Amino acid sequence: MIHEKKIHSIIDQVLNVAKDKKPIAFNKKSVPHLVPDPKNPRYKKKKIDLSTLTDILEIDVKNKTCTAESGVTFFDLVNETLPYGLVPMTVPELKGITIGGAVSGCSIESMSYKSGGFHDSCIAYEVISSDGTLLNCTHENNSDVFEMIHGSYGTLGILTKLTFKLIQAKPYVKMTNLICDNIIDYNRYLNQHCAQKTHDFVDGIVYDKNHFVLCLGNMVDEAPYTSSYDREHIYYKSVVEKIEDYMTTQQYFFRYDTECHWVTKQVPFFENKFFRKTMGSHFLGSTNLIKWSKRLRHIYGLKKRQDLVVDVFIPSYNFINFYEWYEKTLNFYPLWIVPYKMPQIYPWVSPEHKNRIGKESFFIDCAVYGMKNNDTHVDYSKLLEDKVFELNGVKTLIGRNDYSENRFWEIYNKPLYDTVKEKVDPNHLFENVYKKFHPHRD
Asked: Is 258 a member of any domain?
């Protein structure tokens, strides 16, 4: 079997580098959806080649499941499942995000108000430990690894294969955009529409303190027209102009990809129609933009700090408090809003932080993408990090992290993490999750 041959090759690599007993990194076909950091020592580490893990192994139409290798992108996955009238329960918004990356990190989208994150739809993982052991992980078998690999960012073994649920899909999406002029009404509408569960998709964009848009989507069988946001036209700007819109289902899923949300607005001519038409294929799209960021990482390293690119999960009971602070303190727009229903507070959250959160499992993801953070007197990344903790939230680790080690392990479940770490990483190849994201502090 081709998959088994790939696994044997990866295990051989693991056993070979294990002789050096030094932390490793991974070579993948796709680009990591993390903010490039020129000072990160991962660039100098020995690499395990995972670039061949890009095959979809089975689409089970009857049982609505799919088994695929970890390097499969959601763009390729949707291309294969949609002809069967099926899609993943949660499809992250950028074409180059892989299914393995979505589990190792935390990928949510406008389906998440009902379905949670992509990892919540997974029913089995195949994982290689640092001593070359192949682990099959489910809710019943190696359940500790199964539960903790989500949010471990590649530090708890090598995720090589996943089995996950699919749902029925239709060919088009009808969008309805509701406009509000204050956070109180916006929060009420957001909660009402999420509680009704009549929409396939719910997310939103805040453009300024007087302009809030709630984006509601439903899959439909027919459309009077379809809009495309792959090149000249810009999705986040269309929401300002259109109360109603139609897209193909695939176009809807990746509507943010061309701009990587709105990162392109940081380079003014990237939003010029002539440039987009003639040069867009070389520069636009999340994969291109991340590749260019990596190529230019040494130039970006001259900045005092990285730009702020981060998702923060705020318990719904504190969403208004957070937004009012955000408006006064950061005041950066657009701000992406994604309601997120966790089936339960995840095991990787420490018992102490879980107690702070309380019984709430409904969160609002507030995504800050592209804010400058070069003020010599104020570190907005640190301010945001501290405020999220104060409001019992959780910050993703995709960008800059300022946590002290004590604060980090107040949020993350160190005893459980260490237990699973000992099981999957006896040769200490995969690094510690805290150290991975704190290689330096300026």
From this structure: no
pTM score: 0.91
Please state, in angstroms and as integers, the Cα–Cα distance from residue 214 to each residue in 28, 200, 364, following that order.
36, 13, 13
Q: How far apart are CA 74 and CA 226, in angstroms?
A: 21
How many domains is the chain partitioned into structurally?
2
Please report, for residues 10, 52, 126, 298, the alpha-carbon distance to residue 429 in angstroms, rounded to integers and kept in the order given.
Answer: 14, 21, 18, 27
For residue 360, give both structure tokens: 């709430």
**Residue 66 is assigned to a structural domain of this protein:** yes
- Number of separate helices (H) and strands (E) present in the chain: 17, 16
Asked whether residue 191 is domain-assigned, the answer is: no
- Domain with residue 42: its CATH number is 3.30.465.10
Around Cβ 211, how many Cβ atoms within 10 Å? 16
Span 273-302, pLDDT tens digits: 778 877 777 778 777 777 756 654 444 444
Are the C-beta atoms of 230 and 255 separated by less than 8 Å? no
The answer to the question of residue 49 being in a domain is yes
Q: SS3 letters for 170-181?
A: CCEEEEEEEEEC
DSSP bridge partners of 174:
218, 246
State which residues form the domain around 36: 2-169+429-434
